[in-house]
């Protein structure tokens, strides 16, 4: 598919995703405030994820990323909304990468909390003060690794400058080079004699990305499986507690599927395709399309799985319909009464 088609699709996903992310997460924050008493400290983790999702959507909307894979190179291109220096553009792109990594890491923390709550309840103290302050510090380590690698191990060179100019000219000819910033993940290239030149630093950076992704996925899988097994083995908990645990676990299962489909799988393709010199070209923008929609889809899981949240939403909708019907009936009676008197 052409670059023009993908940019149109991505920009549409930007508008839809941003609107959905903002509205759904605001609703979730309201539900956590009014109906989240039974969730304990977990509601604060959920609230953080909601606030982060809104922030992430804002960053994506500002930077308007394009992803392109060609000639064993993955290009992350940001379209500038206003003019700024090349260095600031590089920092912005690295910051976007940090937000991207944070979504993986925070998802893993969700599973760790549920694992502690179900399997190791004595360790839940680690989510209380003052230990709670250590979690952002711990999460910042892989996030900083991801962002630092993106900034330092992928420098702009004559080759990358020429390559990104060719990509824009060939696939996005309405976008000028001076209006973008980029990070080029060059795995290897062939010189005029057909000799392969491997970029060791770039491959090292990709290994760091793979490591962060793999560790968060392993954490989610292990904690999720252990939580499921423990819930099936222990029947002595109260019915109310078991129902809540079951609802939260169902939410986490779906919260595994959503990032797997919209984050892990696309990101895996993003890093693997250049290694095998698979030219996805503008089709690589399906990764951006998925990332725009993800922050708004994830909180929907919590809203519709957790019964208190779901019932609150349904009651609000039904009350609104009832008020609308009552108002319509009142208006009709008033009109009939007016007609009878006249």
TrEMBL record:
GO terms for molecular function: G protein-coupled olfactory receptor activity; G-protein alpha-subunit binding. It is a multi-pass membrane protein. Keywords: Cell membrane, Cell projection, Chemotaxis, Cilium, Glycoprotein, Membrane, Olfaction, Receptor, Sensory transduction, Transmembrane, Transmembrane helix. The chain crosses the membrane at residues 15-32, 44-63, 93-113, 133-154, 207-228, 248-266, 286-306. An odorant receptor which affects chemotaxis to the volatile odorant diacetyl. Specifies AWA neuronal cell fate via the odr-7 pathway. Interacts with odr-4. This is Serpentine receptor class r-10. It comes from Caenorhabditis remanei (Caenorhabditis vulgaris). The gene is odr-10.
């Amino acid at each position: 598919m052409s670059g023009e088609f993908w940019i149109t699709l991505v920009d549409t996903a930007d508008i839809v995703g941003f609107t959905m992310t903002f509205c759904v997460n605001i609703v979730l924050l309201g539900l956590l405030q009014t109906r989240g008493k039974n969730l304990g400290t977990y509601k604060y983790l959920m609230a953080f994820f909601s606030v982060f999702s809104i922030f992430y959507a804002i960053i994506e909307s500002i930077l308007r990323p394009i992803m392109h894979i060609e000639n064993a190179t993955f290009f992350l291109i940001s379209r500038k909304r206003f003019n700024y220096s090349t260095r600031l553009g590089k920092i912005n792109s690295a910051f976007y990468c940090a937000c991207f990594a944070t979504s993986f890491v925070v998802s893993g923390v969700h599973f760790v909390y549920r694992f502690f709550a179900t399997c190791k309840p004595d360790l839940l103290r680690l989510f209380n003060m003052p230990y709670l302050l250590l979690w952002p510090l711990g999460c910042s380590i892989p996030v900083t690794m991801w962002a630092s690698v993106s900034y330092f191990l992928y420098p702009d060179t004559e080759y990358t400058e020429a390559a990104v100019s060719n990509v824009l000219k060939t696939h996005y000819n309405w976008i000028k080079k001076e209006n973008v910033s980029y990070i080029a993940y060059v795995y290897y290239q062939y010189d005029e004699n057909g000799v392969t030149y491997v970029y060791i630093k770039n491959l090292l950076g990709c290994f760091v990305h793979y490591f962060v992704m793999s560790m968060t996925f392993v954490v989610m899988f292990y904690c999720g499986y252990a939580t499921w097994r423990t819930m099936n083995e222990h029947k002595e908990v109260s019915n109310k507690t078991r129902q809540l645990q079951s609802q939260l676990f169902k939410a986490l299962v779906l919260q595994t599927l959503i990032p797997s489909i919209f984050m892990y799988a696309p990101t895996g393709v993003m890093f693997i395709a250049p290694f095998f010199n698979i030219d996805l070209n503008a089709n690589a923008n399906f990764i951006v399309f998925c990332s725009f929609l993800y922050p708004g889809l994830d909180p929907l899981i919590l809203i519709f799985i957790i019964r208190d949240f779901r019932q609150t939403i349904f009651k609000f909708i039904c009350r609104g319909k009832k008020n609308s019907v009552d108002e319509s009936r009142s208006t009709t009676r008033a009109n009939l009464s007016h007609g009878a008197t006249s």
